[in-house]
Amino acid sequence: MAYTEKDDESEQFLTPSYSEISEAVRKATNEYGLCRDRVWAVARSHPQKENVLPYLMQRRVEEPMNGHRDHDQCEFGFCEHSQLDFTKVAQRHESKACADYPCKLLRNHFPRATLEEATKSKKLTAWALNGRSMIKPPLPFMAISHVWSDGTGAGANWSRGEVNRCLYDYFKGIAERFQCHGIWWDAICIPEDKAARSIAINRMHVNYEEARFTLVHDCYLREWEWFDAETACFAIIMSPWFSRGWTALELAQSRKVKVIFKDSVIKDLDEDILANPQSIRHQIGSELISNLRQGTVTTVNDLLQVLHSRSTSWRRDMAIISALLAKVPLDSNASQKKIYQDILRKIGRVSHDQLFHKSPTMSDGFGWCPASLLDMHISPTEPMLRVLESGGVVGPWRVIHRLGDIPPEIYHWKDIHAMVVPKLRLAVQDPDNHLLLAEPATVTGFQENADLINRALLVKRLDDSVYQLVGSLYLQSPLDISGRNEGPVDVTICHGNDIGNDLDETHNKVKSSRQPNLQKQRTVSPDSNNEEALLWAAEKGDHDLVQLLLQNGTHHSPRDGEGQTPLFHAVINGHKETAKILLEQGANPNVKDNRSWTVLHHVSWLYLDGVEVDLLERCDCDSEDRLGQRAIHLAADRGNQEIIAQLLSRGANPNAQCDYGQTALHRAAFAGSVSIVRHLLSKNANPKIQDFLGQIPMHLAAKYGYKEVVKQLIKASPDAIDRVDGQGCTPLHLAAQVGDKVLVQLFLEKGATSLGLSNNEGWRPLHLAAEGGYETTMRLLQEVEGNASCSDTWKLLHAAVKGDLEDIIRELLRENSMDLYINPAELHADSRQRRLPLHVAAERGRERAARLLLQEGASISVIDDYGRPALLVAATHGHAGVVKLLLEYGADVNATDCWEMYSALDLAVDHDHESVVRLLLERGASLKPRGTHNPLLNAIRNGHRDVVELLLKNGSDVNATSGPSSRQLGATEPLENLPLFAGIQHRQIETVELLLQNGASITKTNSNGKEPIEYAIHMGCEEIVNLLLENGAKVDAEYTSGWTPLLQAAFLGSPNIVRLLLAKGANIEVENNLKRTSLYISVHQGHKDVVELLLQKGCNVDPIRDGETPLLSAAKHGHTEIIMLLLKSGADIEAQDAVGETPLFAAISHGHKDAVKVLLDSGAACHVIYNFGVNPLSTIIQNGHEDIAKLLIEKGHCDPGFIEALVLWWSTPFAKIVVMGTAPLLLLICLLLEFWFETGSTAVLCLMLCLIVVVHVLGGPSKDALREGEDHDIDPALW
């Protein structure tokens, strides 16, 4: 391995001696306590192997070193921890306070249905930070790459999608710090459903690729103090995170990566750790990590270098990871062997060296390949053998004949797999059909002794230049093959059954199997299937198929579900030739997909290399997405220097601002990309432009700790060093806020004058450093500032309390090291915001600070600006340790605030702080309701089931009510004030069960007089109804309204509850106070499912109440499907009500055409004159239901008898006209005219003439009447 010298004094790589390697191993394992297997895995993954160990183990003076705990039993080649299943490891707690008082799971977040829908739709599955919905691209999100053994996986909570609140809040805080709107974390983003889970795993890498950055979280790394980049490299390659297979994939796919170290110091992997290695040790570590920063794996060596040093809990995972690294499509049902074979087909080439191994091979066409691809070794030679679709390999070999002339004792059989040795021995005894293949001298590199070999492939002759591999032969001593070999010549090594398989023919078969719709003929027609095929072909880079489809009329730009065209697919997947064809055919690179990005946006974000000039020239560099981002913003954000240079050369504006007011220089400063910052500044990027927060790029560089970027920005604009942002902070303030001592020193050296400047909150850099808990940075600023004024004491004390700086607090309170006089009364005096130090300690959970303040006499009873003593503040925020401390110092456990009378118990219950609730109850907190405050009721309303159980165990009254609550559930429904009703209202099934077990009354009514079962049915909760019935509620209980549960469920249309009640023995024929049965009520309400259920259960189909049957009610309301159900069940189709109305007449009179049709088809009688001389046709005319009239005529229900009845009804036409006007009369005339043409009825003619006379007497037809006539093809002259 040769290392490039940086100057004359740079160290050079020299091959170490065996004693140096041995000493390095001793240091690593015995002195440093590193895992033996991990040390060997790191060495194995480097081309120089064990020779790198002496360099890696060169520990410098004062450099930190952390070993691997509990790895004493590990050996070289095997780690005791590597094969363990860590998926069930309990999830970790981030907060130290959780060790004694664990926080609660974050429940009712990350809905599984939403996740499954997004996954199956193949959308991004990052959650918005509120945990309620998926992130909407192009909003940025953070992906998390972590180690499950640390407890950062889902653990036992996978199925519920729940995580520890403190851990999620920790990750959420980091996402917010880096301006991300969402999080992708497998613990909450991989669904449990098998089908969705398979899709999610196959697409997992896409989320890392699309994320703004990937956060590396490893508890081992979080124990390493940030020292410098060299140490960080060493820590990373030795970390458990770097040893796992899945994290290798995540690292490979991530474009920007940040790593957390001790004290939550976060560094950029590329800019802060890998860039500019200054030593061989740093360079070795940087190379090992950088091997995975290239993205797609393109050679077998690439794959082996990545995965040889890594392990997983499951062997199949390695195959899946390999496929995803190689970007090979995955079938969830594919075997590991099939996956490895597809990878080899995709990569397409292997080295001669990689056919030499001592393992059993695959049993089919890949008979030369080990059963696991990972059993191959990294080859130092170029891959010259081409892999065929059938599995064979083609390439140059030296063919060695006369196998029988080779003495048998020269063969070396040691270490060869026991299943392979017999095959080799038998083949050697058959020299007529077997021969040897040796690597060409140009491959081995040994030109001087080219005819001496020490290994060869033993093969069986199948055909001319076609052989089947038996195995690898190794020789005890070099064999001279001069005079017995030919070549090198191209030979094919394949399985015996694959002779004659041509590569092109095989390729066509594969293509045919994947595109069945395209193989009918080689001519295609433009249709939707071909558009889908074009999208597929563009994604796969099949430019021949793309050209064929376009030539045969398929449009060049169909869109997929994400709004992307074939050009998007070709460019994003790196298929340049395919993209060129699409562009030549007119594809527009400036169309936008669903996230409002053009192809150029994707190229810039995904860091795609080698973008064709032809594409760039056609792209609009100024195109903006919905966030106002141009390609130059995204390229700068991702550190894509190549695209930045091309965009600027094409005239992109470096000072264009997105909707957040940021320029490309802001994004480059945010990303820490020194080279891009330098390049943008050289192209006149303005370093003084402020974003929507008032920040210039220097603010961002200071906030995220990029020293070299800060230097470039100060050099470009030295007068901006004290620029104030919208919060009144200068870059020095922000550097102090994150505790970056190096940057603070740099700003001071460069002349920053804002040391004494207060921001909008009244805090100077000194206060901000103290608030963050950065004592070293604070003392630096303290030293530069000198003594502060006495009036500033409270600020510094507040800040030190927030940062939990125990020594600083002690000095301020006792030692006066700042030459300040501390008036003890000042601790209790009002500040501007009345934020007393003890309240600050209570809010932040600073137990040590609180103890110091109490020891110095801080009052536990003084209230803050919200009328709360410190105990209530600590209870609100769930800091059990501080609560316990305050109680020990005499705080009143039942103290309330001055405004709303909340107690500490009320607040702890409201915020679901179970550990605080338990502590307060142990100290005698009152459970008795006070006005609107009822701890049990509030716990139920907030869904805190565990707290409910705790309160009940401690004697809370399960039937106690509280006063009316002003809070509302939604817009109209008030909150229930009885515990059981509150549980029902909020559908807390487990809580209701718990309440019933603890004696909740099933008969006590709420303020509206409803019983629990009545209210449960009203809320539509079947499970709770069942619970109530099992606990004594009567299935046929009669409410004060006269209704029963069954009648109520039928009215509300709840088939599941109806079924439950009937199963529990409810009377199906029970009637309410209006004598209505459940069938009648459900029919009247139109609840088809309930009607069907009741009929199946055998209810009376024709109960008559007030002369009206269910069928008549269904007809009146036009419930056609219910009518059909009733008729099928035997309902009387001619049943009449008290006035003689039948179902048909009811349907006609209410204008329900479909119901009329069903009844007529079922045999309903039509020719009847009903009470008061009313018949169907008269009703039609009176109400204007022309469509029903036509239906009656079409069905043949207007015979002469019917018409005569109609004439009789029209014996007083003037009375009808007074009511109806001329338009209905004309409708009747038109209908009669049609009927007269068909029948020639004299009665019809007489009636029609009579009506025409009436119309004229009234002054002629109205305009509406004339329009009616035209609709019926009646000439207006007829009138």
TrEMBL record:
Organism superkingdom: Eukaryota
Any one Gene Ontology cellular component term annotated for this protein: cytoplasm
Keywords: ANK repeat, Membrane, Repeat, Transmembrane, Transmembrane helix
Disordered: annotated segments: 504-529
UniProt keyword annotation of Ubl conjugation present: no
InterPro entries (alphabetical): Ankyrin_rpt, Ankyrin_rpt-contain_sf, HET
SMART domains attached to this UniProt entry: ANK
Comp. bias intervals (Polar residues): 513-528
Domain Heterokaryon incompatibility: 141-216
Annotated transmembrane regions: 1207-1233, 1240-1259
The protein's name in its UniProt record: Ankyrin repeat-containing protein, putative
